[in-house]
Specification:
Radius of gyration: 21 Å
Number of strands: 0
Structural class: mainly alpha
Number of domains: 2
Number of helices: 6
Shape: flat
Largest sheet: none
Amino acid sequence: MGSTIFSRKRDLWGGAFIALCGALTILEATSYDIGELARMGPGYFPLMVGCFLVALGILIPLSPDPDEVQDELIEEKLPQPAQRDRVRGMACIAGGIALFIILGSSVGFLPATFALVFVSALGDTSNSVKSATILALAMTAFGAVVFSWALQLQFPMLRWG
């Protein structure tokens, strides 16, 4: 019981701190030109990040108690991934992000997005190479439509040389 109270208090203080950081980000972002969705100014992205942080700070104390969730998982006897599988997942996600950064600047958005999704999907042991490829192709096509056509992002889709 004592650890539950401490956990809830920690969630409350953590959420308050994150919401405060978000509010300060919003305050600072308003000193820049915000612009609009079609023509974003330098303050637009920090404003959105600040709003996200405030919302997250509000939601954290409302989240279920981790000890209760863990007890429910133990009662349901859900399989827990082995340490090796968790490390594999983290390494694949980090590797996918690194590949996106490297490939995005050298060969463009499409190959970078494919590499990001493909490598990250391989972090889940239940995914096969075939399913990771299908997911990567679908997300690359979706990303091209959203970021190139809908948002008109100034990021080259393919770059040679």
